[in-house]
Amino acid sequence: MIALEKQLKDELKRFEAKEESIETIFIGGGTPSTVDPILYQKIFKLLKPYIKTNAEITTEANPNSATKAWLQGMYDLGVNRVSFGVQSFDQDKLKALNRAHSPKQAKIAVLTAKEIGFKNLSLDLIYNYQGDTKALLKSDIEQAFELPINHISAYELTIESGTKFASTPKVRQEDDELAFFVAKEITKHGFKHYEISNFGSYESEHNKGYWKLKDYIGVGAGAVGFLKDTRYYPSTDIDAYIKNPLKIKEESLTTDELLTERLFLGLRSNIGVDKNILNKAMKKRADFLVEKEKLFKDNNLYKNTNYFISDELVLYILG
Ligand SMILES: C[S@@+](CC[C@H](N)C(=O)[O-])C[C@H]1O[C@@H](n2cnc3c(N)ncnc32)[C@H](O)[C@@H]1O
Questions:
Q1: Cα of 237 to ligand 1 centre, how many Å?
Q2: Which ranges carry the Radical SAM core domain (predicted)?
Q3: The pLDDT of residue 176
């Protein structure tokens, strides 16, 4: 936490943070629920003057380590949203995914969070794990909706290099139809599909901030920050980070790269793309997609109706 404080102080200067300017906070990466809430106190104290009233403050949590005492401690610090890494309510699938919690533990964790008073609760589900069927996913979604949540993130399983799964890529199945199925089942329950992997009766402001390419500070090993047109990467190695939290790699994006980012992020969500950022030829192609009812216009914005084909639409517009 000393390293974290040191970097945070430095970043607040870099970002020229003003009083009450922070709209959202996200505590994530790894498992925040293995860290005693007391240890977050200093960070919250440091941030307090900068946090806007009613800011959305999320913490990620693992169902097995998010105990009642931990959740209460985080609530007392001002956290108002919890995102639980549930992944599935199927015992065998959880085991195969190497998760340490049981379906029951996940349900208890969400119910406990509700009881404590958290305003916004979300859970993550995973699909396209080898052997996933419509029946299994339907059951996962139904069990999710029995809980007092207002948000679900449904992620397609991806295989990261360096993980146990990297040597057994067959754990991931390719089935585009399941993505549509999952989206249909979740929206049936009244949640809005507001980004390729995100659904809710409440749309996370923090998530939307990323997709609008708003500035964000990233503190901690492996965190990413973004300011104007530059990404900031502290070390991903925890020991190296602790030794030197101010050693940060910078990557500046060109105007073209920023435009491409805006297109991908805007069309894979309900954010949309401002027509004024497109050149004449791109606008012509986007208008053609409107004519073909692949996109629609909302004032100055081009918006997408089918997030699952957003990559193809972007590549078409870029020409
Ligand atoms: C933005 S989160 C969304 C999680 C969740 N589904 C929700 O709606 O709250 C997605 C992932 O990005 C990670 N993450 C968030 N902010 C980050 C940052 N600034 N740098 C690196 N990773 C970040 C989180 O730990 C999380 O695993």
A1: 18
A2: 1-192
A3: 80
Is residue 253 within 8 A of residue 230, CB to CB? The reply is yes
- 155-192: per-residue pLDDT in tens? 999 776 677 666 665 677 777 899 999 999 999 999 99
> Ligand 1 centre from 301 Cα, in Å?
26
**The pair of three-digit structure tokens given for residue 56, joined into one six-digit string:** 């959305």
Please give all residues whose beta carbon lies within 6 A of any atom in ligand 1, as ranges: 26, 28-29, 58, 60, 83, 122, 124, 153, 204, 207, 216, 218, 223-224
Residue 289: name the closest of 317, 260, 259 by CA: 317
Q: Of 261, 281, 285, 247, which Cα lies nearest the Cα of 6?
A: 247
The owner of tokens 């492996």 is 222
Distance from the alpha carbon of residue 210 to the mean position of ligand 1, in angstroms: 10
- How many CB atoms are closer than 10 A to CB 99? 20
The ranges assigned to domains in the chain are: 18-211, 255-318
Residue 289 neighbours by CB under 8 Å, 6+ apart: 295, 302, 313, 316, 317
Residue 83 CA to ligand 1 center (angstroms) comes to 10
When pLDDT is averaged across residues 75-88 and rounded to a whole number, the result is 98
33/37 Cα distance (integer angstroms): 8
CATH number among 3.40.190.10, 3.30.750.200, 3.40.50.2000, 3.10.20.30, domain 18-211: 3.30.750.200
Q: Please report which confidence band the pLDDT of residue 30 belongs to, taking 50, 70 and 90 as the band edges.
A: confident
Report the pLDDT averaged over residues 91-112: 95
265-274 pLDDT, tens digit per residue, is 999 999 999 9
Closest CA to 186 of 79, 307, 283: 307
**H/E segment holding residue 310:** helix 310-318
What is the Cα–Cα distance from 108 to 116, expressed in whole angstroms? 12
